[in-house]
Amino acid sequence: MEKKKIMVVEDEKPIRELMADLFLSRDIGVDSYPDGAAVLETINADNPPDLVITDFRMPRIDGAELSTVIRDTWPEMTIIMISATPSEIPENHKADVILIKPFRIKILTGIVSGLLS
Questions:
Q1: Cα 97 to Cα 68: distance, rounded to the nearest angstrom
Q2: What is the pTM of this model?
């Protein structure tokens, strides 16, 4: 069976590194990026991850805008958006799951495990 891979997009470095370490320790490959613009510079339609986790509020390109580009590139992609300000997320966002900060790591890993299985 091929190793699962997720994309983590989070501008707060400690949170991004924590999530990457968390999934790497569960034998899930991780590509991590500091913001949506960094993803757009490297996005490869031929090598999609199995799942995307993105923060909503980020510099340059926010998670809602990034989710639209990801959905256009990979229509079947599952997207988890995390936010401390969910009321600011536009109604036309393309995320499948909204996870409100702060959240327990167990909640995130449970959601990801369920979506990857």
A1: 14
A2: 0.94
